[in-house]
Specification:
This protein is of the alpha/beta class and 487 residues long. 34% of the residues lie in helices and 14% in strands. The chain has a domain of 216 residues: FAD/NAD(P)-binding domain (3-Layer(bba) Sandwich), CATH 3.50.50.60. It contains 18 helices and 16 strands. Helix 1 runs parallel beside helix 10, helix 1 packs parallel to helix 17 and helix 11 packs antiparallel against helix 12.
Length: 487
Amino acid sequence: MPTYDAVVVGAGPNGLAAGILLAQAGISVQILEANAMIGGGARTGELTLPGYLHDYCSAIHPMAIVSPFFRTLPLKEHGLSWCESPLSVAHPLDDGGAAILELSLEKTAEGLQRDGPAYRGLMEPFVRHAAQLVPEILRPIAHVPRHPLLLARLGLAGLRSAQSVAKRFETDRARALFAGCAAHSFLPLDRAGSASFGIVLALTGHTTGWPCARGGSGAIAEALASHFRSLGGVIETSHPVRSMRDIARSSRAVIFDVGPRQLADIAAADLPSRYVEKLRDFRYGPGVFKVDWALDGPIPWRARECRQSATVHVGGTFEEIAEHESAIWRGRTTARPFVLVAQQSLVDNTRAPAGKQTGWAYCHVPQGSTEDMTEPIEAQLERFAPGFRDRILARHTMNSEQYQVHDANLIGGDIAGGANDLAQFLARPFPTLHLSDPYATPNQRIYIGSSSTPPGGGVHGMCGYWAARSALSRVFGKSERALGHTR
């Protein structure tokens, strides 16, 4: 029976990234995946009709493109290619027009008309220094910054609420555009820290765009897995880990791409009880309700700009979006939810049969909700795309409870890896004296590198990357200089 120096539990993007870094360092690595399919939140399948490819969870990947680690990997050689749309994001409004986030900051500002100068003033310092800023963002919160003034500037703006930042705009168009980006935080828009999501996601839209993976999000996981295997790594699927006894004792380090509560269940006997209690106290955020459609043609958006973007934010004004995002934290939904729509088949012809299209959408719902949001979601699309329902050939839905069955990491349908309120976001998975290394546990053999650790949710692999770096340093004596890569 083969033995391995390190084991990674979970073959999502973070687990795969951890395995790759360990293998690059000459460590023998085995990845254990509970499901029959690798990928975690990056999986693709025929959910509606034969020939229609739908992403189970993540669909659009601005963070994968900017990931400092993924950028070092030869993923193109392993079959990964990106499909880009002319516009990063479109946000339709009731007047028949749309707010647009373009790759060009100047064109975006021009489209916002009299709010253009205010938007440019907010975003220009970050866009101009994106190459320096993005690596700073995708690190543990506590680190010695290479660009302290730039990071401080982001902090001063980002730690505010989206509502307070949006006050600089006069028009519904600019306010709605910012609200749609900020709502990715899953936070009420009057909460501190919600502005950071709006700024960072707008920043990626201006620097690399918001692409999707050709063939589906599963192609990202397959490319990572292919590269990992080329380095000698081994992946075993359909191999759930319920306790440390399911992992070979010969392994010197075990990195978990699982949530804090799952780690507590698996490793309770191997960690101090106080640490296990903190893991169990980790707070999860709202869930999602998702709909996938097989469509007879493109979504008939009233605003032509929405036909040029793979991502459409549907929710109307800032105030409407804020109302729904606040309601879900109070345990209820609204009749007009904020809906994130992806229409990947507009730019990727592998997703649907010729002449047909796919649609992907979700809205935020209270934690663990089983409420059927199909009608409110489709009503929102019909509001901005009259005749949309006539294009539907088939649909597939998943509520928050079903999401957790699909992926045990998604507690209560939380796809963000935990509540993004300011206190927890700044100290994931919980406050500790060692904020610069939140991946290590009191047991030198055990590490956590899921999206419940910094830098949080998104397909970027950096949580697993930093967890692997911690293990390489603490267990295998590999210095930071020897490891190279992201610094």
